[in-house]
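re the bet — no i am not wrong, look at it urself. input seq straight from the record:
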Amino acid sequence: QRIPTIMSDLSEEQALEVATIYSTKIGLHSIPWRRPPFRNPHHTASAIAVIGGGSKPQPGEVSLAHHGILFLDELPEFNRTVLEGLREPLESGSVHIARVKAHISFPARFQLIATMNPCPCGYWGSNQKKCRCTFKQVQQYQQRISGPMLDRIDMQILVPPVDQDLLLKKQTNKIQETQLETSMIVRQRIILAQQLQYNRFQNLNGQITMKYLEPHTKLGSESQKILQRAISKLNLSARSLYRILRVSRTIADLDQAEQISSNHLAEALSYRALEERQVTHLESVL
C-alpha cells in the first residue's frame, strides 16, 4: 500500500484515460486527479468484478487499476477463473469481452502486486512456529498459482517474518534512522529512471517489446556466464529470461547506468527465488 506514494504522477493523457474509465463505473470523485489508482479487491470477488463483463459489459478491477496498482492479497484464495483471466491483460494491457451483440475492449495496463502465504496455516518453513500442514496440502496450495501465471510476475520474493524483538522495540536506533529513505526520496529516484526510459523509448521499459529493448540489454562476458548458469540451474523459460533482462535494465536505470552490470543482473535474478530450493540454486549461480 506504500507503493502509490513512490509512483510519479500520471500524464494528462493517462489521467484522462483513468477518468474516462471511472466515469463509466463509480464516478470521478473516487480518485485524485493525476494520481495512480490503487485497487484492492477481496479474494471472494467474482471474475466479472475483477476482469470485467456482465450482461451489459462493465470494466472490472483490472481496468479500474489502469496506470496504477492492482493489489491481490492472499492470491491462492482467488477463484481459478479470476487468476487465469489475469493472464491476458498482463500480456496485452487490455481486456477483450465478447458477447452475442458486441465485442468490447477495456484498457487494463496495471502493475500487479500479490501476496500469499507459503501454506494454508502460514507457517511452512518458519523457525518460529511449527507448520500443521502435510506436504501434499502445501503442494496443492502453492499449485493454485499456475506456472504460466507465475511466469508473468517479474519479481517473486520470499519475505521472512519480522523478528518479534524488532516489533516490540519502542525506539529505532538513531544510526538506522539515518539510513532510512522516505517515499519522497525513492519517488525522485524513480522519476529520474522513468525520464531516462522516456528519452530512450518514449515509453517505460515494462511496455516495450524485447525487440526494441534487446539492444539496450547487452551483457558483458561475466554477466553472460552468470545468466547461462542461472538458465541451467533455475530452469528459466524464455518469458522468464526476458523478464529478468527487463528488470536488470530497470535496475541499471535506477543507478543511472548506461550498461547492465553483473550486480544489476544478480539483483534481478535474486527477485526470482520464491522457494528455498531456488535460493540455494541461486547462491551457487552467483
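see?? The chain has a mean pLDDT of 86. told u. also The two ends are 32 Å apart (CA to CA). so pay up
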